[in-house]
Amino acid sequence: VDALVKQHGRELAQVNDYYRRAGENAARIVYFRGMMWGTVLLALLVAGGVLGAWALGWLDPGHEPTYTLFVVVAMGAAGAILSVMTRMARDGFSLDFEVGRKSIRYLGGIRPWIGALSGLAVYMAMKSNLIEFVQATGPKGIYFYATIGFVSGFSERRAKVLLNRIAAEDDDAGSRKGRERSTAEPVPALDA
Known about the structure:
Largest sheet: none
Distance between the termini: 96 Å
Order of helices and strands: HHHHH
Number of strands: 0
Helix content: over 70%
Number of helices: 5
Structural class: mainly alpha
């Protein structure tokens, strides 16, 4: 009886291992399809927005800052997709397949959006001089910003750390201003 129980335990462990591997592989496929659908939706919405704004005369797609902005968004999405694909290839990417296909598809669908928004946020921070990665002597061109967008999308966790640092510096500056105001003379009230 003990030998039979051990044999059934081994077989059950093999079945469980097969179930886990098959579920993870299926989840990766569903996640990847979700990423593709998310990318298509992102491209359609951005293209529709650009065409609508162009038709209303709000922007000129031939203007360098305008097309640089859209290149950064596209490269951020591409960076996020490549990040996921490289992690899937080296088996460092695990999904809880038991949450269901729909949830996994939605998670995959938002991944390009996260990359695009990370690229956009870092681009805007650089254009507003909140951050500067490279001390360049000349103007930064489209290739520079496309690379920044791609890297931001590829490692959006690092972009998040960078943006959190900016927010912390902004909070520190705001609290210093508050302390300076509290030690300064009070502002007289306006008479009605």
